[in-house]
Specification:
about 240 residues, alpha+beta, Beta-lactamase, five-stranded antiparallel sheet, two-stranded antiparallel sheet, 7 strands
């Protein structure tokens, strides 16, 4: 599914938002008929958003062992639980292939799950490069991916401390965040947005200039407000 431009009014509105927030931002939306993107930020590390396909891979590998850890990994974004799920999948290369296979089921043939620990103190899989448009496509397909429904249910149960952005609006969502190598702080989130024309996959990101997590969260809140307020207009394109 190719990405196509939107109307001038929507593009202008997003540019106005971009000019008012202290971050580099982007958003991708995957509808049943098309995918479109806005903003200058389009790709970067997945951080904890990768825990969604990781959870599905672990459930398929051994549901009994994975179940309780999956709850913590998704609802709390718990890193130790996620590392245990990763270990259950075998050595890092095997684990990466299994998580990659889950992403492939959305039609994404390009995203490669990172198996190496590239940065001390951070997970290997969290450093996966995942573009917004591919992540939006993944979100749009998640409900039809086997075992996806169980994880979507947990995405509706995000803990209060992480209930911001799309999650604050009752949307099934998973966020990820972390510091950049050369400054800035990335906060990203994807979710499944119900609309009159069906479920849309949405992925958004804010790379805060000041390197502060809370700034990124505030911008993601603004992005979510912008999206929800313009759903009727977006549906017309």
């Amino acid at each position: 599914m190719t990405s196509r431009p939107l109307g001038l009014a929507i593009e202008s509105s997003f540019e106005q938002l971009s000019a008012t927030v202290p971050a580099n931002i982007g958003i991708s939306i995957c509808r049943p008929d098309r995918t479109f993107s806005l903003g200058r930020w389009s790709s970067g590390v997945a951080w904890s958003t990768i825990k969604v396909p990781l959870a599905i891979a672990a459930l398929r590998h051994d549901r009994r062992l994975a179940q309780d850890l999956v709850v913590k990994a998704i609802t709390e974004s718990d890193n130790p639980a996620s590392e245990q799920l990763w270990s259950q999948l075998g050595n890092p290369a095997d684990a990466a292939r299994q998580v990659e296979a889950i992403i492939r089921e959305s039609g994404d043939a390009s995203t490669m799950v990172e198996s190496r620990r590239l940065r001390r103190g951070f997970t290997a899989f969290g450093q996966t490069q995942w573009t917004l448009d591919r992540q939006a496509t993944y979100a749009a397909q998640l409900s039809v991916i086997p075992d996806g429904a169980a994880v979507i249910g947990l995405m509706h149960q995000i803990t209060d401390v992480q209930r911001w952005g799309l999650a604050a609006k009752g949307i099934a969502a998973k966020a990820g965040w972390g510091p950049g190598v050369h400054g800035g702080y990335l906060v990203r989130q994807f979710g499944i947005v119900p609309t009159q024309s069906g479920q849309w996959g949405v992925a958004l990101a804010a790379e805060a200039h000041d390197g502060v997590f809370e700034t990124g969260v505030e911008v993601v809140n603004s992005l979510s407000d912008w999206l929800v307020s313009r759903l009727p207009a977006l549906a017309r394109y």
